[in-house]
Design a protein that fits this description.
Layout: H1 6-21, H2 44-58, E1 62-66, H3 73-80, E2 85-89, H4 92-105, H5 111-123, H6 136-139, H7 142-156, H8 161-178, H9 202-223, E3 233-237, E4 252-257, H10 270-280, H11 299-303, H12 312-318, H13 324-330, H14 340-362, E5 367-374, E6 377-378, E7 381-382, H15 385-395, E8 399-407, E9 425-433
Parallel strand pairs: 1-2, 1-4, 2-3, 4-5
Antiparallel strand pairs: 5-9, 6-7, 8-9
Helix pairs in contact: 1-2, 2-3, 4-8, 5-7, 5-9, 7-8, 8-9, 8-10, 12-14
This protein binds S-adenosylmethionine.
Amino acid sequence: MEKMTLAQQLGTLQQHRAGNWAVTGARSRPNLHSILRYPAMMVPTMQGDIIDLLVGHVGNECRVVDTFVGSGTVLTESLIRGLDFTGCDINPLAVLVCEAKIAIDGGVNLEAAATSVLEAISSDASSSVDVNFPGLSKWFAIETSRELSRIRRSILDVEDQGARKVFWAVFAETIRLCSNSRTSTYKLHARKDDALVSWTKVQSIFRENLANTLEKAGHYRELIDGRDERPTACVHCADVRAVSFDSNEAKHTILVTSPPYGDNQTTIPYGQFSYLALCWIPAEDLPIEPGRLISNTHALDSASLGGSLKGATEKAEAMRGVSPSLDQLLDTPKGEPMVKELRKVASFMADFYNALSHIRHSLPGGAHWAFTTGNRRAAGRIIPFDQICREMACTLGGRPVTSLQRSLPTKRMPSKNNMGEMITTENTLVVEFT
Ligand SMILES: C[S@@+](CC[C@H](N)C(=O)[O-])C[C@H]1O[C@@H](n2cnc3c(N)ncnc32)[C@H](O)[C@@H]1O
């Protein structure tokens, strides 16, 4: 019997597995996948299936890469399979969570350190508040800040760096749940008075999160039990347009990623979501000194792809010919300036193409890319991001293999978003480079 082509194999995968990919919620995020609730996380089973199929196609001499790694869905799926991994994200909180997952994979002993942290919290009678940043008193009641400072001091006393990273991830989740900002949106948005979380609950929320994380880490260790030799994994905290990957020429690249849908401000504000945790976690324990990225609540979003409107019209002009669908989208009647929303789209797309070009040139040689994207609305039009992605990949010398689809019942976009509708379908485009 003739061997199926890669496109046929992917088609069969979609046919047999689409039901599993539609499962969302807690059940779909076992082991390390639920350590921190990060926005727009990928569905682990789907990405795992794609990795299995691509590794089966190219053989084990490969490295999985996720250039917009977020909280590390693809990282976890790679580690479970014992595959070497390289990741990148501009957001220090996302990279910290990835580092915590790598520490758990490496066998860090959490239990003893967790007991000391809990004991230290209980015996800490100090009422000092150890951080100060713009908005501290708006987002946290003074008593809440005192409780969080107790937890922070206790984690700082932990010697093992890997264990500390895991505890910071738990701390970040506690901050998200205990601040005066709503948890129903990724933006910083004050809770109503009757929804404020009492400071008396801070410690129990932390304890519960910690117990949950220890349990999840235990499940993960069972999953990889007996496989002592762990793969290499490294995650860069950097703008992907400038990161230097230590490319291993001998290895085929399997790039599995989900880029942002558009600029963070009008789609998903990963930076605002992370701001409070980044202000609380000591800079020396973050993957990079966050400095200007937390100089205000919007700084990280402005530094992300499409975050600046500066030179947007020129950027759009420079993109001519890269993607016919983008040319058509950005076409304005002669002499008329581009509306602001379209300039934002242009700026994002130009940044995104720069990122793709940098990735392609930094990781040369054989590669497969699997890009999961969604088509949103902006300026009253559908933005055909899937098609634009395909055309950009072709301009860079790639050959589109096929696309997979997943219906998307729950992925949330900011509710007061004049970009309008929810994204209802996710597309995963697979491209081959030889
Ligand atoms: C859709 S999310 C990835 C979510 C991830 N797949 C997960 O499952 O958690 C997109 C990510 O792109 C990152 N990002 C945006 N601009 C970036 C840039 N210039 N360089 C690197 N990462 C960037 C964001 O911080 C965000 O974490």
